[in-house]
Amino acid sequence: MLEYQLIRSKRRKTLSLQVKHGRVTVRAPHYVKSAFIDTFIQEKSAWLQAKLVEQQSIAKFCDFSQGASLLFLGEQVSLNIGTAKQARVFFADKLVTDTDLLRIQQPAFRQLNVVISNRVSTKLASDLAITKQVKKQLEAYFKQQAEKLIIERLEVISERTSLTPTKVNIRQYRARWGSCNNRGEVSFNYFLMMTPLFVIDYVIIHELCHLEFLNHSKSFWQLVEQHSPDYQKAKQWLSHHQSQLYWLNPS
Ligand SMILES: [Zn+2]
Q1: Where in the chain is the domain with CATH 3.30.2010.10?
Q2: 222: CA distance to ligand 1 center in Å?
Q3: How many Å apart are CA 16 and CA 1, to the nearest integer?
Q4: Are 204 and 180 in contact (CB under 8 A)?
Q5: pLDDT per residue as tens digits for the range 9-43
Q6: How far apart are the CA of 241 and the centre of ligand 1, in A?
């Protein structure tokens, strides 16, 4: 029998099932008997198991090992780790070249190659050391790509909205996507490269709107909506993919 959380309510007229973050919740009218709910769960168990497995595989953090998956521009990609004379990070898929990020096509399958240089690789004595090296190279790659893409999008959006920052930084943040200060400087987290373009655009618009309002007042959100009518979709995407959107330190 699957474990589940039961929430009864007086107003509810039907049974409902929800699988979220790997947990099952059943909502039921107050008069429904427990035995009936158990039968209901049993009948749905194949569907529930499939859902749970699906969520577990999605919720897995990137562990920087061969075959591990991570998000790039909102798409799942898998890591292929190798060694060669020169260190390099690149997509094998011919559709995606580093300078062609904006024309990305829906890929059938994409592999992100992380090549460790022979010189460095001979010094990596353990799996942990390799993992750390892969993470380091990936971070440098994400930063470099973000410096191109985010700046490019920012220029387009800045022109369209007439909101222009005094300075732009691309850096790593632990728990935020961007920031704006009272000197008119905006900063963006290079991990934004994990999110789709429409989310990147929203975060840029969000920070640029802080040039007008340095708070999250109603007027601020009205300005965001004016420049990004679909901003709720971007916020939803971010909260849906939260568990995949930051990297753990290898240990
Ligand atoms: Zn904000």
Answers
A1: 150-244
A2: 13
A3: 17
A4: no
A5: 888 888 888 887 667 888 899 888 888 888 888 88
A6: 19
